[in-house]
Design a protein that fits this description.
Order of helices and strands: HHEHEHEHEHEEEHHEEHHHEH
Largest sheet: 7 strands, mixed
Radius of gyration: 21 Å
Distance between the termini: 38 Å
Structural class: alpha/beta
Strand order of the largest sheet: 1-7-6-5-4-2-3
Strand content: 5-15%
Bound molecules: pyridoxal-5'-phosphate
Number of helices: 12
Helix content: 25-40%
Shape: globular
């Protein structure tokens, strides 16, 4: 794997893992035919595609593989689900304020403003569900910026009791934490490049009995749920990466992030963001004590460290971050935030090396 211990942007993207690369190459060579065509080789590609669908369904304890729909990634999957949930325009959706832009912007586009309820806390969802004042709920599983985890299982159960449609964007959860519960919670989305599976592949899970969903219309692919020739090598890579990632999930979590945070809060007087909530084990978002984050980022980059100033999708945009605003940060503070996200291979000493580098940069910037 061409990645060293100084890469701290795994929430942005991950390198393709060895298992995924091998599956990609093998499938691209053996099964480059169109799985929808009718000759023998195409039939073999089709069998491979359906085996992969079954393998992925099994990981989610889903007995009906057709509930797995392969897509180009989580953005496409989330857009399609939100469009589906909006339906005839008569429905109201409850959504959290910290969703990834591909959910949040889709909600803003597909629902009229009076039909969107934006949560300030999880209690808002509980109230709307109890009152049945929403017909759909979208609550992400894990936040890409802070790593915060949300109680998607509990909220989905409450939705089921009241027959309210539920969607969770699980792009940051899948590959890092166990999958129990996703198979029965409603609409779920995942993205291969977040767990070592390569770019341009993802999937969505449909709730049991869903027949009307259409991510794209055209050919009959994906059991009619999403038209477009399947990217079979990318799908094979994604499934192989997921198997590998789940093995790692079972073998335990890294303690490097916590040691890193102890160091930076003590020595650097950095303030952690979102640390009062349960979080992904790999993510640390923090407020620097002084100076714009881009100056820190550049100096860290010179030392070989890759970190992020926040979600890769909003980096470089001048808009204030909804996620940071939800944590009470002012505009000036938003410009002093850094996110470090490690992977399974990021060792304790890598995290400590990043803390050392931050201390060096701190001294340099204070001397300026
Ligand atoms: N949802 C979340 C929580 C993400 O972190 C990302 C990627 O940053 C996406 C969706 C979009 O995924 P993709 O790159 O597969 O479109």
């Amino acid at each position: 794997m061409a990645v060293d211990g100084k890469y701290f942007d795994y929430n942005g993207t991950t390198p393709m893992c060895d298992e995924a690369r091998a599956a990609w190459i093998e499938t691209n060579e053996r099964h480059w035919h169109n799985p929808s065509s009718l000759y023998r080789e195409a039939g073999a590609a089709r069998l491979r595609l359906e085996d992969l669908r079954e393998e992925l369904a099994d990981m989610f304890d889903i007995d009906e593989p057709e509930r797995v729909v392969f897509t180009s990634g989580a953005t496409e999957a989330n857009n399609a689900i939100i469009r589906h949930l909006a339906g005839d325009g008569e429905k109201t959706i409850g959504v959290s304020a910290v969703e990834h832009p591909c959910v949040y912007a889709a909600v803003k586009r597909e629902f009229s403003p009076e039909r969107v309820r934006e949560s300030k806390s999880v209690d808002d969802f509980k109230e709307w569900i109890a009152m049945q004042s929403v017909e759909a709920v979208s609550l992400m599983a894990a936040n890409n910026e802070t790593g915060e985890l949300f109680p998607w299982r509990e909220i989905s159960e409450r939705c089921r009791e009241k027959e309210i449609a539920f969607h969770t964007d699980a792009a940051q959860w899948i590959g890092k934490l166990p999958l129990d519960g996703f198979g029965e919670c409603g609409f779920v989305t995942g993205s291969a490049h977040k767990f070592g599976g390569g770019k341009g592949a993802g999937f969505l899970l449909l709730p049991e009995g869903e027949e009307n969903f259409r991510a794209a219309v055209g050919g009959p692919q994906e059991n009619g749920f999403r038209a477009g020739t399947e990217n079979l090598p990318a799908i094979a890579a994604m499934v192989a990466a997921m198997v590998a990632a789940l093995r790692e999930v079972e073998s335990g979590e890294s303690d490097g992030r916590d040691a890193f945070e102890d160091r930076i809060t003590e020595k650097l007087e950095a303030k952690l963001i979102g640390a009062e909530s349960p979080r992904l084990w790999n993510t640390s978002m923090f407020l620097l004590p002084h100076t714009k984050n881009l100056k820190w980022l550049t100096r860290l980059s010179t030392r070989g460290f890759s970190v992020s100033t926040g979600s890769a999708c909003s980096a470089g945009q001048g808009n204030p971050s909804r996620v940071m605003a939800a944590h009470g940060l002012g505009f000036d503070e938003m410009g002093r935030v850094i996110r470090a996200s490690g992977g399974g291979a990021t060792a304790l000493e890598n995290w400590i090396a990043l803390a050392d580098a931050l201390e060096e940069v701190d001294a340099e910037l204070r001397d300026q």
